[in-house]
């Protein structure tokens, strides 16, 4: 770290040499200077601190004598990690405490300053090391073996070429890559029966970014928001940051019911194609009834079509937005399920007035999603790679869907809701006395990852016996053995 800047807070109680020593020791033990890292030259350090070069040389030599630094002739001074060793971890803890308001009376009272504390909300938790498990029934992850890496690299090469530089090198302020907008408008939306003008489409950092933008634009403390129960926890948490009037609406085997519980809502969040997390698909007549009720009671519907590319069983149902004649549906889509979640690209389709305000708010948040990512994705779509990937995913997911269905019917009959239009997961209802969170802990020790379902429910009396089994990132031949292990663990719980 030869170019690092060190700020010396001068003290009249100890010498400058001792102050420099203390500063560097804290940096080494705190992890800011790591093993083998070079220090600035004595001349540069002296100029930086406004002290004599000799003072710095003496401090460096003192640290060499104590083993913190290694002096290399004609090269400089380097951190000696062999001495620091085990000190670093404990010192990091100590360094962290220096910035903790509880231990520093002069620090700001951060908890008292927070208007909201999202960290206190209950969220979905996923094991970051899920690929290391033999039976990862985790949702929303990608099977790298199915992804066309060579095609993605070719699109990256083209996007980074001289001809495409104008598309992504400049600051576009509020505007998206017109090529990606056109691909969404002409390539993706027609598959959902949706027609939209370019000014009715906004690229987002994933669908969730779109949800947050909408909540920030539309929700106040007096807003009533209807949420599916069970439903998407992040939408519940986003809404809860803006209003306390979040109404859970229990779903059935056809998704969100259409009844008088909706009438008091200003907005209703709905996942009609694959209800999250039950995977239920809303039939056409109920969709028509929902639109009619929304019109009668001036409700705006927020449609999250999060798995729009995974309808591979039966005939795909049209999006709510495709049936919307009054601009009452705001549509959100994501490319995470068909490409990969780390891409963080989604889109919003809404009336022009909504998109204009959403675009202006997005500018204040992040200006726009990275344009190089937008151009690369646009090329991937335009060259047909996305279509080929979807066909490949459909074939593989169909196999896994059938294998999962057969395994559950054999080992846990009548426990799972069978997705009627594909998707990437099964929603499982275990025995009434099952604690799915305890099951998840036991299963993890056996190499099986599942997702307990309690976090998806609202209210004080949430069931504990539901869990989700996803198959997008697990090999087909591992599905049945994984379900068998789960079954053995569940029966063990029953005996307890």
Instruction: Return the CATH architecture of the largest domain.
Output: 3-Layer(aba) Sandwich
CATH class category label of the largest domain: Alpha Beta
Shape: globular
The structural domain count equals: 3
Terminal-residue CA separation: 58 Å
The helix tally amounts to 17
CATH topology of the largest domain: Aspartate Aminotransferase, domain 2
Structural class: alpha/beta
**Rg calc:** 28 Å
Largest sheet report: 7 strands, mixed
Number of strands: 15
Query: What helical percentage do the residues reach?
Result: 40-55%
Q: Order of strands across the widest beta sheet?
A: 4-10-9-8-7-5-6
By CATH's scheme, which homologous superfamily of the largest domain applies? Answer: Type I PLP-dependent aspartate aminotransferase-like (Major domain)
The low-confidence runs, each spanning 5 or more residues with pLDDT under 50, are none
Mean pLDDT: 89
User: What portion of the residues fall into strands of 2 or more residues?
Assistant: 5-15%
Write a concise keyword list for the protein shown above.
4-stranded antiparallel beta sheet; 40% helix; Arc Repressor Mutant, subunit A; alpha/beta; 3 domains; Aspartate Aminotransferase, domain 1; 496 residues; Aspartate Aminotransferase, domain 2; 15 strands; 7-stranded mixed beta sheet
